[in-house]
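Allow me, if you will, to draw on your knowledge of protein folds for a short while. A protein sequence and the structure tokens that stand for its backbone fold form the material at issue. I would ask you to consider whether the tokens describe a fold that such a sequence might reasonably adopt. Thank you for your consideration; the sequence and its tokens are set out here:
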Amino acid sequence: MKYLVLVAGLFLSGCSNLLDTSFYDDNESLLAVEVRYSIENLNCDFPTEKPKFKILKLKLYSESKGSKDVSSLVGKMSKTAAGLSRTMNPTVCKIKKKLLQKQSKDIAYAIMRRY
């Protein structure tokens, strides 16, 4: 019986290394909301680069914390935001804004639903 418990413990601890899901973090949640807020307030008539900096802040925090799942999602969003600039075409900005809104909503949902 002791061996069965030992083997089960080793098996379960070995499987936990395969999961990349991180635990809930208040700071990461706040940063995700700040990213969503900056994207929602993006005015495509006069675009700014502010969302890129907010995304970078969340990406750096997630990498420093070791949240591989969030880092992966934010890395993809930062590629979408890479083209944001002050001289960008308003039509292209609106398309990017819609994509960023969807990505930021999905990331915030993923971060805030953890426990």
Remarks:
- The chain has a mean pLDDT of 84.
- The longest helix spans residues 90-112.
- Residues 9 and 15 are 10 Å apart (CA to CA).
